[in-house]
Amino acid sequence: MNQKIRGYAQILKKDQFHLVTVNGHSYYIFRYQGKINGFKTVTILISYPKNAFHNNKTLKAFITTDISLCDEEIFQRYNCRWTIETFFRQNKMELNLDKYQIRSSRAIKRYLIITQLAYLYCISGICDNYTSFSKGLKIARNNSKKTLISWICDKSQEGFTKQEICSLLKVA
Fold it and tell me: Taking all residues of the chain, what is their mean pLDDT, rounded to a whole number?
């Protein structure tokens, strides 16, 4: 295969695909097995949701070097991997952890523990029901701001000056 997947998928006919159901969702799948760009033999799955065949916006391609896997196994593995990818993307974007560069196994373990605790807190510890990470993070940030405002008001009522409060907050 020496062309872009999107272009290749467009020339394929519907009868070259087969229907696969994974986690209650059905997809049209085309399986290519062979060498690509000098790599060893790979399996590439080209897929469309059942109700959106040849819709470029819904096209997904999956590649694996484990050619022994059946189509359903490849889909299930990518489904699990997608959850992990989403978790790390949210850590980078929402928690601003994209600048960290850690190399030791101890630091990596600490990073994972902290991010998992933050994630768990945002989806379950912030309100009575489970919520999405983004909503939970927004609630947590708003609660943090409210707590800070309350603390500032309390210090003001205790007679602290604006300069003393700024000093306590280390913003002076």
Answer: 87
